[in-house]
Design brief:
Pfam families: DciA. The protein is an alpha+beta fold and about 100 residues long. The protein has one domain: GMP Synthetase, Chain A, domain 3, CATH 3.30.300. It contains 4 helices and 3 strands, in the order ααββααβ. The model has no long low-confidence stretch (mean pLDDT about 90).
């Protein structure tokens, strides 16, 4: 985005351009996924979540409860849809609970 200095830009446009120019999307997506997971799943699940990581389009969630891991595995598709809705883009295609 090559703008002249006397043109007014919104802060969001400047930040968006900076993120695109420096290829920071992937890093921001990883942070956003962690935040959305904890916000969406609530305190109960967050207490048993030991790690959340995004690698390409696969979300890896480490849980300290085997019972919770089994319960969540039944609703993988719904969880993926809810996370993608909250993220505002189709970022996650698969979830692996460990």
């Amino acid at each position: 985005m090559k703008k002249r200095h006397n043109e007014h830009l919104s802060l969001s446009d400047v930040l968006k351009d900076f993120v695109e120019t420096h290829n920071l999307d992937a890093g921001l997506d990883k942070v956003n996924v962690k935040n959305v997971w904890h916000d969406m799943m609530g305190q109960g699940v967050s207490n048993y979540t030991t790690a959340v990581s995004l690698k390409q389009d696969v979300l890896y969630v480490s849980l300290s409860s085997s019972v919770l891991r089994e319960e969540l595995s039944y609703g993988k598709e719904k969880i993926i849809d809810m996370l993608n809705d909250n993220l505002g883009k189709e970022l996650i295609k698969k979830i692996i609970f460990r």
